[in-house]
Write a structure and sequence with these properties.
There is one protein chain. By secondary structure, the chain is α/β, with parallel strands linked by helices. The chain contains 13 helices and 20 strands. Strands 11-10-9-5-2-1-13-12 form an eight-stranded parallel β-sheet. Keywords: Glycoprotein.
């Protein structure tokens, strides 16, 4: 073990703070953040070089999408070895250096964990294929005989989230047609059988491996999918497989999954400095989502219901109230998120009419989308709990909706009736400079083509520019830390407001009151001036008694 590995195991001594209850967590998609070696693909040294930017932005933690050894059939969510860094991204030493530098700068690191499935190149799966039916390693996955006279039909009617059957047939070692295996996603991603003790033991070991190297916790991919209904019954009348928008069916959100997270909670508790688990749990209701963050399970769960809510006053108020009401009984913080690597960026979603879903191929009205995105971001950062920022949203980046079909790499794009397949548009490498090869992403181009206008939205172009989206985020995050009523406290109270406007206040311990006004309409609206303005997503003129809120705007106020 190298010296840097040893240092990482002893350098993490953060005090107990409950940091995760109000943290702002920044998602880095390693392929698209920063490229240090000039090969056109982002990497871990590139991320390390840009950590000061994230510290200065004002976030508390960084979540890294997968960088494990992988054939990259699904951009690293097909893991061949959970303890090895893919050479595309660097080395294990690079990961340890990144973690250590983040801690030196006061940032925490969350590692993406993919426990529902692995790569078909994982050594367990490869050995199971070599050994054929009857292999004990096949028990660690879901291998089944097919239906029909010759086993030519899949074992049940489950469909892949990416489209097509959720089953692929194997060949026996002698070349004859063999059993089928389950994959809720791409065929290169066989699902683990979490009823098998070896699977549970292996992931306990993987958790400790990264925690020992200093990771502050994990974002848990498809956290709701690990346990399937007994006997793998047919979907029957259930809606086609999707991650969000249908009931759980036999594939997702089974009660048995919570036993796994109760065990993981005991592993996190072995470490004295608050390591955490964050569930990517696409549960059908907020109440079901809350089950993942009961006191003896995980610490946070993504709020996808909020992400999927239209820019309309009543639905927004309903989902905010519903979230707080669902989390309160289990004592968990609410989380808020607008964009990530799987959905169209909110600057583009809000540029289009509501009801089109979370993956959109139309650019919409760019000016409208940016105006709403800025307002939505200030609303999100004003809410109680923890917030997630997806890389580039602080620059107001839109989705790249006009990528040529031949450059797309989303596996769902190539499978009929899949999960839309347009995720590449939010994964285009972000711009750092106004000019140069790949706008400062690296010196060797970009794995996905960047728009000609990317430089105008770059970090360089927006730094110090009055009114820029980047400076708005920097100011908002700084105010969020300073104002005593903001952060994790469950202290939101709605105030009377005109139609199409949300107004709420947050108070704490006799200090100044924070007030947020949000106009989600396309027209200016006049309201009583509630205090002294702190910041706004659009230019406002404050009157002594009445203030006009611009269309699609959010304003922060304080009473002191």
């Amino acid at each position: 073990m190298t010296q840097s590995l040893v240092a990482a195991q002893t350098a993490h001594t953060s005090p107990v703070t409950g940091w995760w209850r109000e943290a702002v967590i920044y998602q880095v998609y390693p392929r698209s953040f920063a490229d240090a070696n000039g090969d056109g693909m982002g990497d871990l040294p590139g991320i390390t070089s840009r950590l000061p930017y994230l510290r200065d932005l004002g976030v508390d933690a960084v979540w890294l999408s997968p960088f494990y050894s992988s054939p990259q059939a699904d951009a690293g969510y097909d893991v061949a070895d959970y303890r090895v860094v893919d050479p595309m991204f660097g080395t294990l030493d690079d990961a340890v250096v990144l973690i250590g530098e983040a801690h030196r700068l006061g940032l925490r690191i969350l590692v993406d964990l993919v426990p529902n499935h692995c790569s078909d190149q994982h050594q367990w799966f490869q050995q199971a294929l070599r050994e054929g039916p009857g292999s004990r390693l096949r028990e660690r996955f879901h291998f089944r005989d097919g239906l029909g006279e010759d086993g030519e039909l899949p074992p049940n009617d489950w469909e892949s989230v990416f489209g097509g059957p959720a089953w692929t047939r194997t060949k026996n070692p002698d070349g004859t047609p063999g059993q089928w295996y389950l994959h809720l996603f791409a065929p290169q991603q066989p699902d683990f059988n979490w009823e098998h003790p070896a699977v549970r033991d292996e992931f306990g070991s993987i958790l400790r491996f990264w925690l020992d190297l200093g990771a502050d916790g994990f974002r848990i991919d498809v956290a709701h999918g690990l346990v399937k209904a007994d006997g793998l019954p047919d979907l029957g009348d259930h809606e086609r497989m999707r991650l969000l928008g249908n009931d759980a069916g036999p594939c997702f959100d089974q009660d048995g999954v919570h036993e796994i997270y109760r065990h993981w909670h005991t592993i996190f508790a072995e470490y004295a400095d608050e390591r955490i688990g964050v569930a990517e749990a696409w549960a059908p209701t907020l109440e079901r989502t809350a089950n993942y963050v009961r006191p003896d399970e995980l610490h946070q769960a993504f709020n996808f219901q909020y992400l999927a809510t239209a820019w309309q006053a009543e639905p927004l108020r309903d989902v905010i109230e519903g979230t707080l009401n669902a989390m309160r009984p289990v004592g968990a913080p609410a989380t808020w998120v607008l964009s990530n690597h799987d959905v169209t960026r909110h600057a583009t979603r809000f540029a289009n009419p509501p009801g089109l879903g979370t993956q959109i191929r139309e650019p919409g009205d760019r000016e409208l989308g940016l105006r709403r995105a800025r307002a939505a971001s200030l609303l999100m950062l004003a809410l109680p709990g923890s917030a997630y920022i997806y890389q580039g949203e602080e620059l107001g980046l839109p989705d790249v909706t006009d990528l040529p079909d031949e450059v797309r790499q989303d596996p769902a794009y190539f499978r009929g009736a899949g999960q839309d397949g347009f995720r590449d548009g939010c994964r285009v490498p972000i711009p750092w400079t106004t000019e140069g090869t790949s706008y400062g992403f690296g010196t060797g181009g970009s794995w996905l083509p960047q728009p000609d206008t990317w430089g105008e939205l770059s970090v360089e172009a927006q730094t110090g520019a009055p009114g820029s989206t980047l400076e708005m985020y920097r100011s908002a995050l700084a105010l969020r830390r300073r104002h005593p009523a903001l952060g994790g406290a469950d202290n939101l109270r709605w105030l009377p407001s005109p139609d199409g406007v949300l107004i709420f206040e947050r108070t704490t311990g006799g200090g100044p009151t924070f007030i947020c006004t949000v106009n989600v309409t396309g027209d200016p609206v006049t309201v009583d001036t509630p205090g002294t303005p702190l910041m706004a997503s659009a230019h406002i003129t404050v009157g002594n008694a009445r203030t006009v809120l611009p269309a699609d705007s959010t304003v922060w106020w304080t009473t002191a």
